[in-house]
Design brief:
The complex is a heterotrimer of chains A (about 70), B (about 425) and C (about 290).
Chain A lengths: L1 H14 L26 H12 L17
Chain B lengths: L9 H5 L2 H12 L4 H6 L3 E12 L4 E12 L5 E12 L2 E2 L10 E4 L6 E4 L6 E2 L3 E14 L4 E12 L2 E14 L4 E14 L23 E17 L2 E14 L7 E3 L24 E3 L5 E14 L5 E11 L4 E12 L4 E12 L11 H10 L12 E13 L5 E13 L6 E13 L1
Antiparallel strand pairs in B: 1-2, 1-22, 2-3, 3-8, 4-7, 5-6, 8-9, 9-10, 10-11, 11-12, 12-13, 13-16, 14-15, 16-17, 17-18, 18-19, 19-20, 20-21, 21-22
Chain C lengths: L5 E5 L2 E8 L2 E8 L3 H22 L7 H6 L5 E3 L2 H16 L26 H8 L8 E3 L2 E3 L12 H16 L3 E6 L2 E15 L6 E16 L4 E4 L2 E4 L2 E2 L4 E2 L6 E6 L2 H13 L4 H8 L2 E5 L2
Antiparallel strand pairs in C: 1-2, 2-3, 3-7, 4-6, 5-6, 7-8, 8-9, 9-14, 10-11, 12-13, 14-15
Helix pairs in contact in C: 1-5, 5-6, 6-7
The chains are: A mainly alpha (about 70), B mainly beta (about 425), C alpha+beta (about 290).
Chain lengths: ~70, ~425, ~290
């Protein structure tokens, strides 16, 4: 459970910062900073490859997605 | 036109002052010209993936996704995927250094042999998959959004129909977003040559008599996306996936071995004799599976605009598989809107409780008597995977983008069958219509 | 430095008013919630104040002052200032040098007080030595002006503030919005906004315009001119000569998708003098010219 503890502490530290205002979103609005959009179609293609080659799936979004490969 | 006494470039000459100003205004306001034009237009993302394992499977997978944003900020996305697979796939049997093994193809029409030292591969493996996804997302209020979608996928021995729905809630001046989503998927498995009766001998070709099997999956996702500061965003997801029904791979066997580890012949168990080393048991997996996954992603922009992306996933399930996935990417921004992005992925899993590389006759008899689960599929065994790759791309003046990647994927585990090397190549192009 | 901010109910929602950039400013919002309107007003007024503070020529604590007092040294500028400089550069190129953010120094010679006091040619000629965008040096994140030169974003700033303010407010609400800073305005709506175009000189309304999404901006001012020997000298100075444009309309109003773009088209049209309407017709935009 060590990982979970580290995650939690980092989150706590992050939450104490002042919220980022709408006019400070120039960087965060870039596509390469948006989880799930930054890599375009790669995420779904990778999920499909690794779903069919490994015993795990899911997490990023819904796992698998209709494939009889596993 | 009299205004253009000193055109800055030949390109400016060709367009009116008005459209040049429109583009400059978009740049000033921090909108890309493409993005502003894409309102109420379609954005198309397209890609072709090439995946090739040495000696095994080769896949070519073209994808096209069209996304349209409407005036009320709602968004419709439609995606088409085709997947063409050729080559051979490991059938579950051991890699024997000493003995020849003999198998029947899934259809029962041919008998094939694997020589000592070779990975037993079923080379009748050939498939074409088509999938269509539609997703619609709309605003419920200033801070709430809803999304719903449908998926359909079909291949010659498998059909899947799925639906999903979710809610997203923006909080804390939109610095936090909570996501709650459900998905349901119904799969129909229609194995070539009929559904084999689990835990029977492959050479006997015992079939259940039913033409197809079903599986249903319910997924639940709780997500938290948090802006940490101007340069850092993170996402934390919890995903529960509960499936029930037919999970067995109808084409996979488990090899029976003697005390020295050599493949047994079917005569030792009284099964049909089709050749040497033909004592192979049809595998059986549990009829349900519950997976829990925690996914944590971070994206950080450095002072020079380079982006560091790191993600970690922990997954655990009631089959006894625990896995860790670490993914690192560094997007290096170069001049003229080029980027170069090295990528490393590391994956490690522990074996499922019922995974066995091979079993003895005594073990097979016990498993048959108790109707226990057993599989020798290397994907359920101990496994460590490493992917190393490089992606590069460029945004063009028109707002369209292209990219390409080349990656090497290497699997290794406790068995020789788990040693897979693959090449991943992909080209992608995004444009507006 | 919170300005006076007032909010009142109007027939279709709320109107918030404040003062910034030497202009009366307003935000119209078709929202049911006064709280939301108040939040949006604060957002819009804060943004106007931020831009005014950052780019005003009349302060000594901002990036404009650092640039204008740099005495020929390189000055580091942030991303937003860089984008404005890029925009100024594009406008300079597109106008063949007639829109020039370094032309503000000419105001040392010209005072548009409706009198007949024209400066003498030598004074103007001497000041022209300090005008010229092409002599401004740029490198990523920094700018250098020759000693004596000055930058002035006066021709861009207010329209830019309108676009920024609308963009921020639009990101916070789904309600219809109209942002109006002293007659330069931008709107987003499902229902159109009715905008009256006031006649600049005489009384009366010049026209009515229905605006659903997009912007209007006006360049020119009927109250700022010089008149000598029957020639009306507008306050729009041509930096290539150092003299005001003559023979053109008193004011030009242009409709475009963004206020910044509309304002620049209006300014470029004024710089055409008598050719203003020809220029606007070529751009294929809706416009209104006030000649008398």
């Amino acid at each position: 459970m060590r990982t979970a503890v580290v995650v939690f502490l980092v989150l706590l530290a992050g939450c104490q910062q002042a919220p980022v205002k709408p006019w400070e979103r120039d960087i965060l609005a870039r596509e390469d900073m948006i989880p799930g959009e930054a890599e375009g179609l790669d995420d779904a293609l990778d999920d499909h490859i690794y779903f069919s080659k490994e015993g795990s799936s899911g997490g990023r979004g819904f796992g698998g997605g209709g494939c009889g490969c596993n | 036109m009299q205004l253009k006494k000193k055109p800055a470039s030949a390109r400016r000459d060709a367009i009116s002052v008005g459209s040049a100003l429109a583009a400059a205004t978009c740049a000033l306001l921090g909108q890309t010209a493409g993005a502003s034009e894409s309102v109420e237009d379609w954005t198309f993302d397209s890609a072709v993936l090439y995946y090739s394992e040495s000696d095994r499977v080769t896949a070519v997978e073209p994808v096209v996704r069209g996304t349209r944003t409407f005036e009320d900020d709602s968004e419709l996305s439609l995606k088409l995927t085709f997947d063409s697979l050729t080559g051979a796939s490991h059938n579950g049997a051991i890699v024997s250094d000493t003995g020849v093994q003999t198998f029947t193809s899934p259809s029962g029409s041919t008998i094939y042999r694997t020589n000592p030292g070779d990975v037993p591969l079923d080379d009748t493996f050939k498939d074409t998959r088509s999938a269509v996804n539609g997703q619609y997302t709309w605003n419920l209020s200033r801070t709430w959004r809803a999304t719903t979608g449908l998926n359909y996928s079909t291949e010659y021995d498998f059909t899947s129909l799925g639906a999903n729905a979710g809610l997203m809630w923006d909080l804390n001046e939109r610095n936090s977003t909570l996501t709650l989503a459900f998905a349901h998927e119904s799969d129909t498995i229609d194995p070539v040559g009929g559904v084999p009766t689990a835990l029977t001998w492959q050479s006997d070709r015992v079939r259940t008599g039913t033409s197809s099997e079903d599986r249903s999956i319910n997924d639940f996702l709780l997500g938290w996306t948090q802006v940490m500061n101007r340069r850092w965003i993170m996402q934390l997801n919890y995903n529960l996936s509960a499936s029930s029904g037919y999970h067995t791979d109808p084409y996979k066997v488990v090899t029976l071995v003697d005390a020295a580890g050599n493949p047994e012949d079917s005569s030792t168990v009284g099964a049909t004799d089709i050749g040497d080393g033909d004592a192979q048991l049809m595998e059986q997996r549990p009829d349900s599976r519950t997976k829990h996954a925690v996914y944590w992603e971070n994206r950080y922009t450095r002072q020079n605009d380079d982006v560091v992306a790191m993600s970690y996933r922990f997954m655990t399930d009631d089959w006894g598989i625990n896995s860790h996935t670490v993914d690192l990417r560094y997007r290096w921004k170069m001049q003229n809107d080029w980027f170069l992005q090295p990528h490393v992925r590391w994956y490690s899993q522990s074996a499922a409780d019922f995974w066995r590389e091979s079993i003895t006759v005594a073990e097979a008899n016990l498993i048959q008597a108790t109707q226990d689960d057993v599989s020798a599929d290397y994907r359920l065994g101990d496994l460590t995977d490493v992917t190393v790759g490089l992606k590069f791309g460029r945004e063009l003046a028109s707002g369209s983008k292209w990219n390409a990647r080349l990656e090497f994927f290497q699997q290794s585990g406790d068995t020789d069958a788990a040693d897979v090397d693959a090449l991943i190549g992909q080209v992608g192009y995004t444009f507006y219509w | 430095m919170q300005q006076q901010r007032q909010i009142e109910a109007i027939s279709q929602g709320w109107a918030g008013r404040f003062s910034a950039m030497a202009s009366p400013c307003e935000l119209l919002c078709r929202s049911d919630s006064q709280d939301e309107a108040r939040r949006l007003l604060d957002l819009v007024a804060d943004e106007a104040a931020r831009i005014e503070t950052k780019f005003s020529r009349y302060r000594d604590d901002n990036v404009m002052h650092r640039i204008n007092a740099s005495q020929g040294e390189w000055v580091a500028v942030d991303e937003e200032t860089s984008r404005l400089l890029d925009y100024a550069d594009t406008c300079f190129q597109l106008s063949g040098g007639r829109f020039d953010v370094t032309s503000g120094v000419l105001r040392k010679a010209w005072t548009f007080d409706c009198s007949d006091r024209l400066p003498d040619a030598e004074t103007v000629q001497a000041l022209l030595a300090d005008v010229g965008w092409s002599r401004v040096e740029r490198r990523p994140g920094a700018v250098r002006l020759a000693p004596g030169m000055e930058l002035d974003f006066g021709g861009i700033g207010k329209e830019y503030a309108v676009d920024r303010a609308l963009g921020l407010a639009a990101a916070m609400t789904g309600a219809d919005l109209l942002v109006n800073f002293g007659g330069d305005l931008a709107a987003r709506g499902g229902q159109p906004w009715q905008v009256g175009l006031e006649s600049a000189g005489a009384n009366g309304v010049q026209g009515q315009f229905s605006l659903t999404r997009g912007a209007l901006a006006t360049s020119g001012d009927s109250r700022r001119y010089l008149l000598r020997d029957g020639v009306r000298y507008s306050h729009v100075l041509d930096p290539t000569s150092g003299w005001p444009v003559t023979g053109g309309p008193h004011s030009v109003t242009v409709a475009a998708s963004h206020c910044t773009q509309a304002g620049m088209l209006a300014t470029l049209a004024l710089l055409q003098g008598a050719g203003a309407e020809d220029f606007l017709r070529q751009q294929g935009v809706r416009y209104w010219c006030q000649w008398e």
